[in-house]
Amino acid sequence: MKIIVLPGDGIGPETMAATVEVLEAASRRFSLGLELIPDEAGHDSLARHGATVTDALLDKVKSADGLMLGPMATYDFKDESKGEINPSKFFRKSLDLYANIRPARTYKGMAARLGEFDLVVVRENTEGFYSDRNIESGSSEMLITPDVAISLRRITRQCCERIARSAFELARTRNKHVTIVHKANVLKIADGMFIDICHEVGRDFPDVSIDDFIVDAMMAHVVRAPQRFDVIVTTNMFGDILSDLTAELSGSLGLGGSLNAGDRYAMGQAAHGSAPDIAGRNIANPFSLVLSAAMLLNWYGQKNQKPSFLAAAKAIFDAVAAAIESGEATRDVGGKLGTRETGAALAQRLSAI
């Protein structure tokens, strides 16, 4: 398996180095034959090539089997005419990575104020209110006058159907329940279509139960009792917000793995930002990126029917859980280790299996 590795900005190089160490240990232990190919995106690419991402890089990614994208300083990239392109958006749109899979679960060794839970948010990734990806050319966000701004939202049958199918297929491997999150009481046409299509797709999965919640009510229910949920499917912006909430409820946004997947390509990506204020201090939590890498291996193993990749992914998930329980972690999740030491401890656990 060839994986393009893009460390990113801020804490990205540190957390990616720890993640690469874990992937290399998993490759040795499970004979995966991983080929990790470093490249650059973000500020380094902007300085060297005049753009945060390049067409040449996209060609490399398309010829590989997967992509690992480190945290990016997206707030710094404001003018695409100057090469300041959001790399995350660029890859999601260029590779049609329509499903953002965001698990959230509690871990032993961390206080769970709401009790134990294990859920997954399945977020549509390519349309909705996000102006950088919901039209073919340009932006769907406009400044009509200095005092009037308009943002357009696109919802299509194709995107609703495929994200719903992704959610139901995932639910079949878990506890066989899907919750549809929407705002159809106000957005009657767009979210009305989304919820109707989700129920239509659900009829192909008679073994999976379904319920639905208006998004504001859903936030209250998740905070009150997250353990009642299994797989949550929703549109882009709602999923973006909800998945950060569920990750934090599990103990830390730094425990939120994230996979962006389409029919042909997939990209592992940490759920958090580039945190420039702590960059270079060896205190950043690498677990989110490590868990995202495990999700990428799992996706590849399922897609290509390779049991060794599935076993490696499970071993990484288990190693992270054991590390948190034993305190072999960074300070933000109850440990005393630095970024490098946390990555080394995880690699050692994998080597010792």
UniProtKB/TrEMBL annotation:
Q: PROSITE patterns under this entry?
A: IDH_IMDH (PS00470)
This protein's record includes keyword Oxidoreductase: yes
Going by the UniProt record, its keywords in alphabetical order are: Oxidoreductase
Q: Which InterPro entries match?
A: IsoCit/isopropylmalate_DH_CS (IPR019818), IsoPropMal-DH-like_dom (IPR024084)
Which biological process annotations from GO are given for this protein? isocitrate metabolic process; tricarboxylic acid cycle
Show the SUPFAM superfamilies listed in the entry. Answer: Isocitrate/Isopropylmalate dehydrogenase-like (SSF53659)
Q: Which Pfam families match?
A: Iso_dh
Q: Does the keyword Oxidoreductase apply?
A: yes
The terms under GO molecular function for this entry are:
isocitrate dehydrogenase (NAD+) activity; magnesium ion binding; NAD binding
Domain Isopropylmalate dehydrogenase-like per the UniProt entry, residue ranges? 2-346
Q: Which family does it belong to?
A: Belongs to the isocitrate and isopropylmalate dehydrogenases family.
Record's protein name: 3-isopropylmalate dehydrogenase
Lineage runs: Bacteria, Pseudomonadati, Pseudomonadota, Betaproteobacteria, Burkholderiales
